[in-house]
Amino acid sequence: MTKLLDQAVAAARSLPSETQDDIARVVLQLAGADDAPPVALSADEQAAISASKEAAARGEFATDAQVRATWAKHGL
Prior knowledge:
By secondary structure, the protein is mainly alpha-helical.
């Protein structure tokens, strides 16, 4: 185990059990060790992703100010 992963596990140990389970599910998913099938996307979600990829291909990205405004809107 890497030092960083060991630190992450140590930090997670102090969290409530529900949060630890959430973290564990994410780690298992990232490691490919979960049995969950892929999430099916709706037609609207697929269209939104396609539009985002097309915008990225054109080099259209949010400005730093737009990103900060979105974070502030959601309390981040």
